């Protein structure tokens, strides 16, 4: 009986020991992915900012500029592109909607971002764009890969339509979470005018005819939870200028926008809670279950060997037969 139990325990020990690396190195890369139907929104604010009044073409101080960012998964497009690409794909339709302190629109910039659901690497397909302009992204945008490393990454900048390094600047603690801090600086770069302008009749084409150009620079900062690769907080020191041309009435330049853009507090709290939840799920696949199965397999192996050793007790000695005395003859 002990021999049978020992063999069963040995088989279970081998099973759990083999399951540990399979779960970590085979199952996790296939199971961990961004859902195709994900929807998320984010509100950012720039308080005491400078904003251009397009009616007077003069910059003025305002109490607040609000940026509402939404990302909505297009399931049907993801299915079609994924079938062609031969992998799981996510298609995000994004929108950055900027409004002034009076609630009126300053600009809105749509995006279509297509990427691998597992690695977050961009997938190039028809429809990839920023503000109606076709683009071919390189590097990440919005989200870092699962199990983010302590290194620099390539990050796509939607304003300049270029990819630039975003630098790992150290490990920090944010709202009880260990995070990696990344920073990217985009130097002053000439960029296009948004297709949707706050004043009716003003278009990128009409502005271009005046010879006025738009320039932009920013310092972008992210606090990224490394297990999920999700930013729990982000901010930008953002500046835009209009330069030259007849639109400025002889002035060399005018500030179109300047301010420190930061996530609103209620969205910080929501994001941190969501990331903590998702972090536990990822750790189950990468750490808790693999190590738990390995320890369980080791314990089962030890118990199996213990039962096997105690099942091999030496047999009781056989009884010695009685000796019959030989007859004595005279």
Structural notes for this entry:
The protein is 28% helix and 39% strand. The protein is an alpha+beta fold and 330 residues long. A twelve-stranded antiparallel β-sheet has the order 6-5-4-3-2-1-12-11-10-9-8-7. Helix 1 packs antiparallel against helix 4 (265-310). It is elongated and about 100 Å long. The mean pLDDT is 91.
- The helix tally amounts to 4
Spatially, the strands of the biggest sheet line up as 6-5-4-3-2-1-12-11-10-9-8-7
Major sheet size, sense and barrel closure? 12 strands, antiparallel
Beta-strand proportion: 35-45%
Oligomer: single chain
Number of strands: 12
Unreliable parts: none
Q: Note the overall shape.
A: elongated
Order of helices and strands: HEEHEEEEEEEHEEEH
Structural class: alpha+beta
- The amount of helix comes to 25-40%
* Span between termini: 59 Å
Q: What number is the mean pLDDT?
A: 91
Radius of gyration over C-alpha positions, nearest whole angstrom: 32 Å
Domains, number: 2
């Amino acid at each position: 009986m002990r021999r049978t139990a020992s063999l069963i325990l040995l088989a279970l020990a081998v099973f759990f020991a083999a399951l540990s690396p399979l779960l970590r190195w085979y199952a996790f890369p296939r199971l961990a992915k961004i859902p195709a139907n994900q929807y998320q929104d984010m509100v950012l604010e720039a308080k005491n900012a400078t904003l251009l009044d397009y009616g007077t073409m003069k910059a003025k101080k305002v109490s607040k500029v609000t940026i509402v960012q939404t990302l909505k998964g297009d399931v049907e497009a993801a299915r079609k592109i994924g079938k062609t690409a031969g992998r799981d794909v996510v298609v995000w339709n994004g929108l950055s909607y900027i409004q002034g302190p009076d609630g009126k629109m300053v600009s809105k910039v749509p995006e279509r971002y297509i990427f691998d659901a597992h690695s977050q690497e961009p997938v190039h397909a028809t429809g990839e764009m920023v503000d109606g302009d076709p683009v071919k992204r390189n590097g990440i945008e919005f989200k870092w890969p699962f199990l983010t490393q302590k290194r620099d990454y390539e990050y796509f900048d939607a304003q300049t339509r270029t990819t630039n390094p975003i630098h790992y600047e150290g490990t920090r603690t944010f709202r009880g979470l260990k995070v990696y801090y990344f920073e990217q600086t985009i130097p002053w770069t000439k960029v296009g005018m948004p297709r949707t302008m706050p004043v009716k009749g003003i278009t990128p084409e009409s502005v271009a005819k005046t010879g006025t150009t738009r320039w932009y620079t920013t310092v972008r900062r992210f606090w990224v939870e490394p297990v999920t690769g999700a930013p729990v907080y982000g901010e930008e020191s953002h500046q835009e200028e209009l330069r030259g041309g007849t639109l400025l009435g002889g002035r060399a330049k005018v500030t179109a926008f300047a301010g420190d853009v930061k996530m609103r507090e209620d969205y910080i709290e929501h994001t941190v809670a969501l990331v903590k939840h998702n972090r536990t799920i990822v750790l189950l696949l990468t750490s808790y279950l693999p190590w738990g199965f390995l320890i369980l397999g080791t314990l089962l192996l030890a118990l199996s060997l213990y039962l096997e050793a105690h099942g091999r007790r030496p047999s009781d000695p056989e009884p010695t037969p009685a000796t019959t005395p030989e007859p004595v003859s005279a």
